[in-house]
Amino acid sequence: MELSDETVYILKKLYNKKRIGYKHTEEKNCLRRLKNLPKEKRKLVMEEWECLIKTGWIIRLMKTGEFHVSLNPRFLREMMQVIENEKR
Description:
This protein has four helices and three strands; from the N terminus they run αβααββα. It is α+β, with helices and mostly antiparallel strands. The protein has a single domain (5-87), classed as Arc Repressor Mutant, subunit A. The protein starts with a helix and ends with a helix.
């Protein structure tokens, strides 16, 4: 799976903060960085984000009136491979 640098950054951030399984954070906290991007790049990252949710890499649940997200532990190995490939 090919992901943009911004999407990989969000995945790294979730992984480094150990937001895996049922330990979650608000979705708006993850996507806060997008407001500084150009419109085209923002649209691309949002499309990739929705794709990650649909494929199951990201768990998205409604909690406290907001969407909360975490990484799916079943896909961690695949995510780490994508992240490692993006570093090169």
